[in-house]
Amino acid sequence: MTTRCGFAALVGAPNAGKSTLINRLTGTKLSIVSPKAQTTRFRVIGVLMHDQSQVLLVDTPGIFKPRRKLDRAMVAAAWTGSQDADITLLLIDAKVGLRDEVRAVVEALAKQQRRVWLVLNKTDLVTPGQLLPLTQELSALVPVEHVFMLSARTGDGVEAMVQHLADAMPEGPFLYPEDDLTDLPDRLLAAELVREQIFMQTHEEIPYQATVETESFKEREDGSVRIEATIYVSRPGHKAILIGEKGQRIRSIGEKARHELVRLLERPCHLFINVKERAGWDEERARLRAIGLDDSV
Ligand SMILES: Nc1nc2c(ncn2[C@@H]2O[C@H](COP(=O)(O)OP(=O)(O)OP(=O)(O)O)[C@@H](O)[C@H]2O)c(=O)[nH]1
Predict the structure, then answer these.
(1) How far is Cα 228 from Cα 270, in angstroms, rounded to an integer?
(2) Which residue minimizes the CA distance to atom 17 of ligand 1?
(3) Cα-based distances in Å from 178 to 52, 63, 153, 184
(4) Domain 4-168: which CATH class?
(5) Facing residues of 48 across strands?
(6) What is the ipTM of this complex?
(7) Of all protein residues, whose CA lies closest to atom 2 belonging to ligand 1?
(8) What spacing in Å lies between the alpha carbon of 20 and ligand 1's midpoint?
(9) With 70 as the cut, is the pLDDT of residue 76 above it?
(10) Of the residues 13, 29, 50, 113, which has the maximum number of CB atoms within 10 A of its CB?
């Protein structure tokens, strides 16, 4: 039987409903809310299985007005990520319509040769009559292959998009084995929670130069889980900072991340964190794919 597998990038202004849609498509809560804005890099945030298709939903950092150099790099990475995807889903809040912020995203997208599918979200908040003019306005700015009108909140119209996505994926083997899918969210969650703590407890470029991978995730007979995570840094100085004096910082990162894990997984967790220096980790494509990242900020 032929299988299909590919990437679908979600692009949209903040609040368009990305997280809600992902959660509906995958049935899992994966998006992490961090007090520091813009912590989201390009990564697989959901795996959608439909018929013989695996659709890897990838997130992009919120498209925002870049001020600092770093912000610009993040936005560039968002676009690069989206470029690698097979389909770009342009998510629009139908209630808000085409305000400036949205226009900027659409215009940037128009400059790139992508397969763009327009997704008008929050149809439960507008009348059908408002959707047609909005579709016309948007498709005048960027050529779109398909238009979907749906409500991520109620689920109305979502199924039609899922079917089209599944059919549009290129033929190929699944990148994530089906068996792994059950614990994939938890593995990603563990890595994300550690990364979130790096964001909160270190400064400047360190969070952006570090990546976290869950090496092993084992359920134990007593109902607890044993998790091993590795933080990869690209510079020796960063390793020392992350570990901190007498291991203080890494301990604190581990404690806070573990605390959150216990809360979200609702069972005892044992978390072991390693810090490894690996110059150029961000260029190792296979490694990046393995953790759902695909950029090189
Ligand atoms: N009525 C309605 N509300 C929605 C729908 N989809 C999302 N929302 C709401 O819109 C708000 C933003 O949704 P999120 O899913 O957090 O949006 P996001 O695009 O992930 O936002 P950022 O994380 O800021 O990029 C939330 O209050 C959602 O509950 C929808 O289809 N209908």
Answers:
(1) 8
(2) 17
(3) 11, 32, 27, 10
(4) alpha beta
(5) 55
(6) 0.96
(7) 122
(8) 6
(9) no
(10) 13
Rounded to whole angstroms, how far apart are CA atoms 8 and 123? 22
Find the 58 Cα to ligand 1 centroid distance in Å. 17
Query: Rounded to whole angstroms, how far apart are CA atoms 237 and 288?
Result: 22
Contact residues of ligand 1, CB 6 A cut-off? 12, 14-20, 62, 121-122, 124-125, 151-153
> Nearest residue CA, atom 30 of ligand 1?
122
Residue range 126-135, pLDDT digits in tens? 999 999 999 9
Residue nearest to atom 32 of ligand 1 (CA): 122
How high is the mean pLDDT of the chain?
80
What's the maximum distance between 2 C-alpha atoms anywhere in the chain?
64
- Give the domain ranges of the chain: 4-168, 183-290
Binding residues for GTP are 12-19, 59-63, 121-124
Pocket probe for ligand 1: among 32, 34, 153, 156, the residue whose CB has the most ligand atoms within 8 Å is: 153
Q: Tell me the C-alpha distance between 27 and 290, whole Å.
A: 21
pLDDT tens digits for range 262-288:
988 889 999 999 999 887 665 554 555
Q: What is the pLDDT of residues 8-49, one digit of tens each?
A: 988 888 788 887 898 788 755 444 333 333 333 445 667 788
CATH 3.30.300.20 fits 183-290, yes or no: yes
Residue entry with tokens 């573990």: 258
- In this structure, which residue's CA is closest to atom 10 in ligand 1? 17
Could you tell me the pLDDT band of residue 147, with boundaries at 50, 70 and 90? very high
Evaluate the CA torsion angle 283, 284, 288, 291 in order and state its sign.
negative
Give distance in angstroms: CA of 15 to centre of ligand 1: 5
Residue of 20, 75, 119 to mutate, ligand 1, most atoms within 8 A of C-beta: 20
296 — pLDDT class (breaks 50, 70, 90): very low
